[in-house]
Amino acid sequence: MVSISPPGGHEPTTTMPPKHKILIVDDEAPIRLLIAQVLAARGYDVKTAENGAEAIQMANHEAFHLIMTDLIMPGHDGIETILALRAKHPKTRIIAMSGGFHGGKQTYLPLAGKIGACHTLAKPFGIASLMEAVSGALGCGPSLAVA
Asked: Mind spelling out the 3-state secondary structure of the chain?
């Protein structure tokens, strides 16, 4: 687990509330850390997990406004992770991310949307798409009170 905070002394560069808690789940460390750094620089409280099992354990001990999960990971894949999170944490917003294709067609992202992801992102994606998805996901569904 890695916790990323905004750089000291710098104001967030967005109008989003700076205390939204976001968990980034991806087995690829460079992607996980890049997303975390981008969001932390914009004032979000960001933590990371390298797989679905770790994410579920973290979510069971700490409330998150938003969980962004890759779909193709070893162990608990993203679909299993979303299902487990939905069962125990139905108010947590979820963004599914994937660059994986099956038979030349992206099949995992539509499934993720059907089982509870607010938004989906096909990899690779840019910062503008990331921020649009995060803003949209934080605006969907019932509000979550996080202590």
From this structure: CEEECCCCCCCCCCCCCCCCEEEEECCCHHHHHHHHHHHHHCCCEEEEECCHHHHHHHHHHCCCCEEEEECCCCCCCHHHHHHHHHHHCCCCEEEEEECCCECCECCHHHHHHHCCCCEEEECCCCHHHHHHHHHHHHHCCCCCCCC
Q: Report the distance separating Cα 1 and Cα 3, nearest Å.
A: 7
Q: Is residue 144 part of a domain?
A: no
Q: What is the pLDDT of residues 26-65, one digit of tens each?
A: 999 999 999 999 999 999 999 999 999 999 999 999 999 9
| CATH, residue 68 | 3.40.50.2300
The token duo for 73 is: 């990971």
Summarised one tens digit per residue, pLDDT across range 10-20 is 444 445 445 89
Distance of alpha carbon 4 from alpha carbon 46, whole angstroms: 5
Q: How many domains does the chain have?
A: 1
